[in-house]
Each structure stands twice: as structure tokens, then as C-alpha cells.
Write a structure and sequence with these properties.
Elements (H helix, E strand, L loop, with lengths): L4 E2 L6 E2 L18 E2 L5 H12 L3 H14 L7 H13 L4 H14 L4 H15 L7 H12 L4 H13 L4 H14 L4 H13 L3 H14 L3 H9 L2
Antiparallel strand pairs: 1-2, 1-3
Length: about 230
């Protein structure tokens, strides 16, 4: 199979003749982003690190690609992957907005660029007030795209850490972990929820998983101490 299309739902590579993503089963109804043959090896390597949860390696390679191959910033598939990485490392909203806004100039109707711009906007509106505009905006994204792991994470982690709403946050974080098990911050947050609920075996399993993904020695030791 020739991998020259990226699924706009999950980011997996596929061929244009398939018509449906073999990984998330979403149809390619014009929403798949074309991969330039010149840049596809770089994108493939970044995505490999991202999928494996090697988020710092993915970030460093994306930053290098941004600096050395600025034309990538016009490609929706690269920008979306870069934005997902930045969201997972708690990168600055201003940077995320800048990447998405520039990419939309060349891809004005790309649905995922628009959706992630909405997520970035919602992220900036989260506060310590219940049902704030950020929460409502994220809930709307999730209703439309129930497998969007970054909307699920942002809403779930906010509900847990800021509002102390364990049951609602559990629903969102479990869904996030189900669709992206190698999302370190989401796994750590879900493990903390399990710990608070007294589900020690589930918490220990997830903390071990977090330790396996963590690159920082001190944090790796911390996660191991919680198992």
C-alpha cells in the first residue's frame, strides 16, 4: 500500500484507494491531508515518536523541522501533529494559535485545523468557575468528535484538578486513555483519579505505564514510587 494520505481523524497513514481509515474506520471524504513525498519521512518519524508516547523526541524533531523546513507550516498534517504534541506537553496557547492560524491561510476549509483552533480557544477560557465558556466549548467539540483525545483530556483534567468533579472527569479521562493510551499526562491524571477512588490496582498499573513513558529521571522515579 502506498501511504500518501493522512487520516484527518486519527492521523494514521493510509492509501487514497482505501476510502476508509484502517485504524479508526473514519471515511476519507476529502478530509484526509496529502503528504508531500519530500517531507513524508520527517512526518512519519515524528508521528512514530508521538504514537509511542516519546513526546519529547517528537517535540524536538517537530521544532527542528519547523526551523529547517518552514514550508511544512503550510501543511495541515504537519501542523496538526505539531499542535497535538504541544497540547500534550502543555505548550503555550499563543504558539498553538499561531501555527493553526497560519496553516488555515493555506487550508481554509480543513475541519481539523478549525476544530483544534476551537480547542485552543476553549483552553484559554478555562477558569475556576463551573460551566465556564471553556468547558462549554470543549463539551461541544466532544459532542461532535467524541474521539478527540485532546478535548477529552483538557475537559477531564480541568474538572478533576480545578473543580474536584471526580465522576465527570473519570468519564472523559477514561475515554481519552482508551483512544490514546500513550498520552502521558492523561494517563497520570487518570491514575490520580483511580487512586482517589481507592482503585489501587488500576492506579498502580497506570503509574507503571507512566514511568515507562517518562523521560525525566526524577519523574520516572516518582511514578514508580506510586505503584
Amino acid at each position: 500500500m502506498s501511504f500518501d494520505v493522512i487520516c484527518s481523524n486519527c492521523g494514521a497513514p493510509s492509501g487514497p484507494s482505501v476510502g476508509i481509515c484502517p485504524f479508526c474506520k473514519s471515511p476519507f471524504s476529502g478530509g484526509g491531508s496529502k503528504i508531500s513525498g519530500e517531507e513524508s519521512p520527517t512526518l512519519t518519524k515524528i508521528k512514530k515518536y508521538y504514537d509511542e508516547g516519546l513526546i519529547e523526541r517528537a517535540l524536538n524533531l517537530a521544532r527542528t523541522a519547523e526551523r529547517e523546513k518552514p514550508k511544512l507550516l503550510t501543511q495541515a498534517n504537519f501542523v496538526l501533529l505539531y499542535v497535538k504534541i504541544l497540547l500534550e506537553v502543555d505548550g503555550p496557547t499563543s504558539k498553538i494559535n499561531s501555527l493553526l492560524s497560519k496553516a488555515l491561510l493555506d487550508n481554509p476549509s480543513d475541519p481539523l485545523l478549525i476544530e483544534y483552533l476551537e480547542i485552543a480557544d476553549a483552553r484559554s477560557k478555562l477558569s475556576n468557575q463551573a460551566n465556564d465558556p471553556g468547558e462549554l466549548e470543549l463539551a461541544n467539540v466532544i459532542r461532535r468528535s467524541p474521539k478527540n483525545v485532546h478535548a477529552l483530556f483538557l475537559l477531564g483534567s480541568h474538572l478533576f484538578w480545578v473543580e474536584g468533579d471526580t465522576q465527570r472527569s473519570l468519564k472523559y479521562l477514561e475515554a481519552c486513555h482508551r483512544w490514546r493510551p500513550n498520552f502521558l499526562r492523561a494517563a497520570a491524571c487518570l491514575a490520580a483519579i483511580y487512586k482517589k477512588l481507592g482503585l489501587d490496582s488500576q492506579a498502580s498499573r497506570l503509574f507503571r505505564h507512566c514511568a515507562s513513558l517518562e523521560s525525566n529521571k526524577e519523574m520516572k522515579a516518582y511514578f514508580k514510587s506510586l505503584t
